[in-house]
């Protein structure tokens, strides 16, 4: 097992390199960029962008030169001092060749130095840490509740396969899976957050403004009060896959010969189900838990965060892409890719922990 883990760890290096290289190359050919964004804001909003980039200094503002005499590679740069454009490129690091910028970025990322945001006066790692509590809350609650609902429901559906219970629960699950979570979120807002009917739940934030003054029990209630609607919206459309996977796994195990033998020995159905079938049937379900959490943690909450005004990593990633804040974009990509590869390894190791008969040493990576 040690050799298998070592091979997987070594394979992470070219995988991360490939992901970052492809993404970096795409960015080079994508229209727009931080320099163009500042130029556009200067053209449309005066010095707002310039204040954020150069600390309010207008030393490199618009030139009195004829705009037609400046041949710039940036759209909308006519009429701006070329020295100002050069300063912008230097501040963003675009005065260096792409290959040098890519190598420098990889070297910094190996040391977990992600630099500073282009358009926010904060380091990238601090910005990510600031948004992480929201994403952790959504990811943990969604994964926990999804499994707590899916596994018992899947087991009961397997036991009652073909019954009315199995039929109508399957219909509900499929409908819930087909409807996007953001539509559930909008419906919940309309019904319970002051949209048109009841005003029972808050519509903004993870906690109330007076959260710090509340007692411990008051903080718990306030937190759960704020999380109820977003978590409900996410869970309703998230447990269909796990439920059906649990049902099919149990059905497959129940039909095997060892179950017939156990019944012949006089064991009760509960002894057979939870003493023999459960461990084998839950192998694939439990082993997928780390990946399910990471998926919910990073990718499952952007629209929910937007609808309920929860400032988490999903919303941060989207805004960074829109604003061409490349340090934040690449840092998010690097962290997610690295965690995804580690979680994939942990999922494989979970298989061996649940079922020692599985031996990855005998398989090719």
Automatic annotation (TrEMBL):
Extract the CDD domains matched here.
TM_PBP2
Q: Which residues form the ABC transmembrane type-1 domain?
A: 132-347
Q: Which Pfam families match?
A: BPD_transp_1 (PF00528)
> How does the UniProt record describe the way this protein sits in the membrane?
Multi-pass membrane protein
Q: Cross-referenced InterPro entries, in alphabetical order?
A: MetI-like (IPR000515), MetI-like_sf (IPR035906)
Q: Which domain of life, per UniProt? A: Bacteria
In which compartments does the protein localize?
A: Cell membrane
Keyword annotations: Cell membrane, Membrane, Transmembrane, Transmembrane helix, Transport
User: Is Lyase there in the keyword field?
Assistant: no
Q: Which residues cross the membrane?
A: 9-30, 136-155, 167-193, 223-246, 281-304, 333-354
Q: Does the keyword ATP-binding apply?
A: no
Which PANTHER family does this UniProt record tie to the protein? INNER MEMBRANE ABC TRANSPORTER, INNER MEMBRANE ABC TRANSPORTER PERMEASE PROTEIN YEJB
State the NCBIfam families in the record.
PRK15133.1
Assigned protein family = Belongs to the binding-protein-dependent transport system permease family.
Write down what this protein is called.
Microcin C ABC transporter permease YejB
Query: What species is this protein from?
Result: Daeguia caeni
